[in-house]
Amino acid sequence: MSVRGLARCAFMTAALIIVQYALGFVSGVELVTVVFAAFCYTDGIRSGIMTAVSFSLLRCFIYGFMPNVILLYIVYYTLFAVCFGAFSEIRPSMTFLCVFLGTAAALCAFLGIRGIGSSGMGIAAIKVMFFILSGIFAVLLGICIGVSVKKNSAKADEIAEKTAAAALAAVMTVCFTLLDDFITPFVFGYSAVAAKAYFYGSFAAMLPQTICAAVSVFLLFPYLKKAFAGAN
């Protein structure tokens, strides 16, 4: 990697730490996802992974060296870098995107109806969460269908791309919570009952973060992508 590339990674690592710290006092609101997504899109997988590892380690000087968090961040943001770096090379077609969003909406709706249990406030909250997620994917699907009639329009292509990015960001945010639900109980040796309680409790934070990630990426991704590409 060139010196310029290393400098860009260092700058992005600092930017991610600043963005996370600045919004760390607002529950459920974060812009790390959209900033890092745009960077990985423009600079590729290699730069994204290097930034992901640096960010995961250096942020510990502010928030503390928690082994479960370090492992979670390294695994998640490395996977994130791979996904958004690959997204720039293999952008999904409109047909594939519609199928993906439709399937995601249907799956979330099904999980909302069936749930993972039959009673209790925790189960009810999770069911509501799945219904809201199905609504997010349904809205993105509607946008894709709406712009598909203008296939030759540059504006339609831009909308399709940022819709795909928003959908990917929503899925990745859900994956972050699911990874945490596995890594944290494993690292600290939770009992089955404690791990289940942790699993239920994590969904309270996941829902607003997922909505924030989808909305922020849909609105800001094109502008950040152009800014990072212009500075490259």
Could you please describe the fold and organization of this structure?
- With 232 residues, the protein is mainly α.
- The protein has one domain (3-230).
- 84% of the residues lie in helices and 0% in strands.
- It is built from 8 helices and no strands.
- Helix 5 (94-114) runs antiparallel to helix 6.
- The longest helix is centred in the last third of the chain and has 39 residues, at 192-230.
- The radius of gyration is 18 Å and the shape is flat.
- The two termini are 14 Å apart.
- 33% of the residues are buried.
- The model has no long low-confidence stretch (mean pLDDT 85).
Annotation keywords:
232 residues, mainly alpha, 0% strand
Question: What is the share of helical residues?
Answer: over 70%
> What is the ordering of alpha helices and beta strands?
HHHHHHHH
Q: Kindly estimate the percentage of residues that lie in beta strands according to DSSP.
A: under 5%
The structure class reads: mainly alpha
Number of helices: 8
What's the β-strand tally? 0
Number of domains: 1
Question: What is the CA-based Rg, rounded?
Answer: 18 Å
Task: Chart the SSEs and their pairings.
Blueprint: H1 3-22, H2 32-58, H3 60-63, H4 67-89, H5 94-114, H6 121-147, H7 154-188, H8 192-230
